[in-house]
Write a structure and sequence with these properties.
The protein is an alpha+beta fold. It contains six helices and eight strands. It has helices spanning about 35-45, 135-150, 155-160, 160-170, 175-185, 190-205, and strands spanning about 10-15, 25-30, 50-55, 55-60, 65, 70-80, 85-100, 110-115. The chain is globular, with a radius of gyration of 18 Å.
């Protein structure tokens, strides 16, 4: 499935604050709510096996809406526990723009009509970042990990391809949901790396520690 024309117009939506999926990256998820178990069962019956990860955003007055842009992942792995829950893996395929939610259809989960046209690049080959200063970037990252008391496999980080490195850090590092959304919406890998550096530098200047930890 490498053409926009092959992608479905309507996909199931999985709103999850702070969860970020990017093209060609993998996101493990634990599925246990009945509505999302139903979503998973329906997903496995479709040829595309796509689930759209999208972040809810809070508005003044307590209202919650879905973000305009999400990322669809193809179900590439799952295992079932004895009590009927699932551990699944989504492999990012392409970002999408949410046009509107589809009402009806007798599904307990949300579905969206989506447009893929703005993200044709996502269906191509992995991106590179010619301007990435590996040494400087790793030094900055080490300071951030020290501040947040995070651990990592530094050998794998140093040897990772540009896209894998930048996207994995974007998905895993403990940033606020709105920051995750900014990383998702970055138009290119270069822009995503620049955004990531800005977020790390801001965290280092502020010196604060979030509640989340790197998994």
């Amino acid at each position: 499935m490498k053409r926009i024309a092959d992608l479905p117009e309507v996909i199931p939506l999985f709103p999850l604050p702070g969860a970020l999926l990017l093209p060609r990256a993998r996101l493990p998820l634990h599925i246990f709510e009945p509505r999302y178990l139903a979503m998973l069962e329906d997903c496995m019956k479709t040829p595309a096996r796509l689930i759209g990860m999208i972040q809810p955003r809070s508005l003044p007055g307590g209202e919650t809406r879905l973000s305009a842009i999400g990322c669809a992942g193809r179900l590439t792995g799952f295992s079932e526990t004895e009590d009927g829950r699932y551990m699944i893996t989504l492999t990012g395929l392409s970002r999408f723009r949410l046009l509107d939610e589809v009402q009806g259809g007798f599904t307990p989960y949300r579905r969206g009509r989506v447009d893929w046209a703005s993200f044709a690049r996502d269906l191509g080959a992995a991106e590179t970042d010619p301007g990435l200063d590996r040494e400087g970037f790793m030094a900055l990252l080490a300071r951030f990990f020290t501040l947040r008391k995070l651990g990592s496999d530094w050998t794998n980080l140093r040897e990772a391809e540009d896209e894998m490195l930048i996207n994995a850090l974007s998905m895993l590092l403990p940033f606020a949901p709105e920051d995750k959304q900014a990383l998702l919406e970055a138009p290119s890998l270069v822009t995503r790396r620049e955004t990531l550096v800005t977020l790390i530098e801001f965290a280092l200047r502020s010196g604060g520690a979030p509640d989340e930890v790197l998994q």
